[in-house]
Amino acid sequence: MPDLALYVAFQGDGPPVLLLAGQAWKILEVDWNRRRLHVEPIDAIGRVRFAGTPAPLRAELCRAIGDVLAGESPGVTLSKRATNQLDEDRATIGASVGSTLVRREEDGRVEWWTFAGLKANLALAGALGSLRRERTGLDNLRVSLDPHAWLDDLRVALAEPPPPVEPPDDAIEGLKFGEALPGHLAAAVVRARLSDPGAVQRVRDASRWGATS
């Protein structure tokens, strides 16, 4: 489950509590040798302790997330908790269907909501240079920018196609059967797996770029 987020709450001096799939679970025992947890359901409220590394989501899914945040129906029946969270996110982000959004937060942070997927955001971030010297965060839905960055700066930076994403050494070393490939071919395989040129181009061609502050 590569996209699974792990939520843990600590209740005083008691055992930690996991919040998975909307249910809180009290940890009874940890079997380190078998890498298993023995748990039982419990009434509790969890808080984030470890969210994991973002796994790449398809650009189509990320665009659909943006459209739902902009007001489109998710097409499923949501729980009360999910409905409240969606209302909160819609009020916070304020996206428009089919658009990208640059948002300045109250603490001065600037977030560029691309809804393009992690692969596209890696490439887009690589083209922003001076706009990301202080802020380096990114995920499937957004790219963090320095406080001075704004809409016109993005347009200028993306006037030319972003350079290919250079794969990190550990990604090349961890490539399955990578030892059977020459180094340049192994790097090319990883580079291809990290690229989504169609999603990058859709962001660059977006007819609607919004901004809120």
Summarize the structure.
By secondary structure, this protein is an alpha+beta fold. The chain is built from seven helices and nine strands.
Question: Can you give a write-up of this model?
Answer:
The protein contains seven helices and nine strands; from the N terminus they run βββββααββαβααααβ. It is globular. Helix 3 packs across helix 7. With 213 residues, the protein is an alpha+beta fold. It has two domains: 45 residues, no CATH class; 154 residues, no CATH class. Strands 4-3-2-1-5 form a five-stranded antiparallel β-sheet, with no helix packed on it. A four-stranded mixed β-sheet has the order 8-7-6-9. Strand 6 and strand 7 form a beta hairpin.
As laid out across the biggest beta sheet, the strand order is 4-3-2-1-5
Describe the largest sheet. Answer: 5 strands, antiparallel
Spans of at least 5 consecutive residues whose pLDDT stays below 50 are: 1-12
Q: What is the succession of H and E elements?
A: EEEEEHHEEHEHHHHE
Number of domains: 2
